[in-house]
What we know:
five-stranded mixed beta sheet, globular, 4 domains, D-Maltodextrin-Binding Protein, domain 2, alpha/beta, 12 helices, Chorismate Mutase Domain, subunit A, six-stranded mixed beta sheet, single chain, 365 residues
Amino acid sequence: MSDGDTLSSLRARIDAIDDQMLALLNARAHWAREVGRLKVALQTGVRDPAREQAIYDRLIGLNVGPLSNEAIRRLFREIIAESRAVEGHVMGKVRVAYLGPKATFTHMATTRYFGGAVDGLPLHGIKAVFEEVERGRADFGVVPIENSTEGVVNHTLDLFADSPLKIYGEVLQEIEQHLLSVHGEIERVRCVYSHAHALAQCKNFLETYLPGIPTVEVESTARAAEMARDDPKTAAVASELAARLYDLTILKPRIQDHPHNVTRFLIVSQKSPERSGHDKTSILFSIQDKAGALYEILRPFSEHRVNLTKIESRPSKRKAWAYFFYVDVDGHLDDAPIQAALAEIGRLAISAKMLGSYPAAERPA
């Protein structure tokens, strides 16, 4: 910046850059459309997680600031999502089943992963999502698997035991709960609706700022928003998306008790993604009911230096006191250390099922 620069001249420079960016973004969209046409000819999917990860890695490697690497990732995530929408118009929309209704955090995770170029199918149960994908009526399904404060979603884990579906990807969605109503006055609230988990996540706020006001559990945060829209004496604990869709006012933003509240969602499909170079592998196995059995079956991960990131146990429901173990590890099924560990585990386990290798989700900043 020179001494002769004025505010208007600096703004003129920014305007000129914006003009260039607009032209370049439309040029990118043009070539994305051509990619979509080629994908139709090759019969490949609209979503390529490995390609997207490579774009992020390359751009972050080139970044010299002042924008942070997280800002670069966030900006290009939106650009890529819009480019994917352009591809989708050429290829035909991908059909995605998700745990509904609309405006839930699962809906938000679906949009975050696939962008707007999808034919969304909101369903009323996790099992229904699995069934829709298993029967080929949806290309993908989106289901919650765990929350950073509330823990694992057991029903999702249980369904993997008998389902042929693979894990295609994952999404980490920040959970920000807001107090919503049709008006802007918290003093008028006489009842608060929400899902049980959302009410639990906001317990301290509700007890402090709405003492004595009854809370009512409903089937979803979206349903709570719908009910609050129809009754000015009530409020809902729900997402910003719910506020937009149901034309509600945010009385108090981000009222969850824990600021870093994140839910992990899984993308399930009949197919597997390409290797991305930053992958995670999920495995389901059962073991003999004897002393030291769990130690023995986990030991190969340590010996082959495979990082075990998660383990959960669930009753098998096939025999009393028999359990399945769900395990996540860093790396791809084709990696030599994971193959070596799994070869040993296969000899020790009663059963072992590979749920898939898939690109690991970026963690929220």
